[in-house]
Amino acid sequence: EPEVTQTPSHQVTQMGQEVILRCVPISNHLYFYWYRQILGQKVEFLVSFYNNEISEKSEIFDDQFSVERPDGSNFTLKIRSTKLEDSAMYFCASSRQWGQGAFGSGTRLTVV
Amino acid sequence: KQEVTQIPAALSVPEGENLVLNCSFTDSAIYNLQWFRQDPGKGLTSLLLIQSSQREQTSGRLNASLDKSSGRSTLYIAASQPGDSATYLCAVAPNAGGTSYGKLTFGQGTILTVHP
After folding, report:
1. Which residue of chain A comes nearest to B30, CA vs CA?
2. From the CA of B13, how many Å to the nearest CA of chain A?
3. Cα distance between residue B102 and residue A56, in whole Å
4. Contact between B15 and B77 (Cβ < 8 Å)
5. Using one digit for the tens of pLDDT, what is the confidence trace for B61-74?
6. What confidence tier does B41 reach under pLDDT thresholds 50, 70, 90?
7. A62 φ, ψ (degrees, to nearest 5)
């Protein structure tokens, strides 16, 4: 069964460094999302992406964050200058229709 | 702003028991509601999706109901097994039109432990 793939599974970075989290959505999906889950807290929506542009973004998704679909298969989340509070599990999801996504297994980002 | 609450926060039951997990949401203008399973350190697996026009969905030993007007959903698990141990999350998609359908709001989850 097709699945959403995320790499790396765990990334440790120094505060202030840039990180890029990578996702390969399911191939015939058109809608792409990033969510995050801080340890012990709810899963939170960050951004949705369709037709090569951002569709919706939350208040968390500030200028430090950006998303890109560089080559038609990958979907990336970039955090420009990481802060300690960016430490979380980041989930990528994709779907053929709005609101019915398949989620990846996540990237655990640890900022030290 | 949509708020999703799940009760109980944790549940421990012996194998074989039937159980009910509860989810409530504050804004009834939803597009759909999903129940997910999350295993420790793993991703989210969608279990059941109920469209706003539906009352329930069933998959194997799982049955989810939706009462949109009262802002409630329940997930019923029949004949629980140790392999059902996981965190169960409820999430709603807003019916605000257009691209907002993809913006899921999650509850904090119910941690289920089924012991042999």
Report:
1. A99
2. 22
3. 8
4. no
5. 999 999 999 999 99
6. confident
7. -95, -165
**And the tokens for A36?**
């995050």
How many CB atoms sit inside 10 A of residue B78's CB? 12
Alpha-carbon span B113 to B116, nearest angstrom: 10
Residues 77-96 of A with CB under 8 A from B: 91, 93, 95
CA dihedral of B96, B102, A41, A8, whole degrees rounded to 10: -160
With a CB-CB cutoff of 8 Å, which residues 84-113 of chain B face chain A? 89, 91, 93, 98-109
pLDDT reading at A38 higher than 90 = yes
What tokens were used for B38?
A: 């999350």
Question: Tokens 């989620």 sit at which residue?
Answer: A103
**Residues in contact with A36: Cβ distance below 8 Å, sequence separation at least 6, in sequence order:** A43, A44, A46, A60, A88, A89, A90, A91
Which residue do the tokens 């960050």 mark? A46
Q: What gap in Å lies between CA A96 and CA A24, rounded to an integer?
A: 14
CA-CA-CA-CA dihedral for A22, A25, A27, A32, to nearest 10: -120
DSSP-derived pairing of the beta strands A5-7 and A19-24: antiparallel
